Each structure stands twice: as structure tokens, then as C-alpha cells.
Amino acid sequence: MQVFMNLVLVVQLLSALTMIGLVLVQHGKGADMGASFGSGASGSLFGATGSANFLSRSTAICATLFFTCTLALAYLGSHRSVGATSDNVLERAAPVAASAPAVAASGAAAIPDAAAPAASR
């Protein structure tokens, strides 16, 4: 199970790095905005952009793969086998003694009494 989780993690990291690279290489929609207003082709600025090219389709595939791996890691991380030892700090903590008074455990006994200095004046 740990091998499968590591494999999914590697695929997620590779898809994230690929997606970052693809987004940085793509040409933005607003890059031609200044030229569109001056050249009379402003209708194409707010109109349909046409079919998606190779880079945008590749980015969509990488994003889908990234989110699928994220969901798989969340599922695998939350469902552990029954016999596995817990790595939770709270479950490993020593139980608090029941005979200890609550005031001493809260630290209220260490606070000096504010009324004592006022009475001695």
C-alpha cells in the first residue's frame, strides 16, 4: 500500500511541474489587447477564441491528472489498515492521572493572589 501511495505522489508531483511549465509557455489572452483596440479588430477581443490548441488541452489533461492524484492521496491517507500502529501524537500521549486536582493541573495555583498586596497597604 505504501508503494502505491508513493507512486501516486510521484505522478502528482510530475503532473504539477508539467502543468506549471505548460502554463508559463502559453500565450495569454490579454497579450494582444493593445493591438486589438488600435487596429480595428476589437471584435475578436471579447468574441469567441476558437478551438483549444495543443498547449491548453495538455494543461487540462495535467490538471485532471493532478486533481485525480490529490483525491487518491486523500483517500489513501484517511483509510489506514486496522492493524497499523498509529502515528497520532494524541493517541501516544500518556494518560493524565485521575487523582490530580484540577486547580494544580490548570496552573492557577502558581498565580500570586492579587488581593494580598492590596490588604497589606
TrEMBL record:
InterPro entries: SecG. Involved in protein export. Participates in an early event of protein translocation. It comes from the Bacteria. It holds the Pfam family SecG. Keywords: Cell membrane, Membrane, Protein transport, Translocation, Transmembrane, Transmembrane helix, Transport. Coiled coil: none annotated. PANTHER family: PROTEIN-EXPORT MEMBRANE PROTEIN SECG. It is found in: Cell membrane. This is Protein-export membrane protein SecG. It comes from Roseateles aquae. The keyword Protein transport applies. Belongs to the SecG family. The chain crosses the membrane at residues 54-76. It is a multi-pass membrane protein. Its main location: membrane.
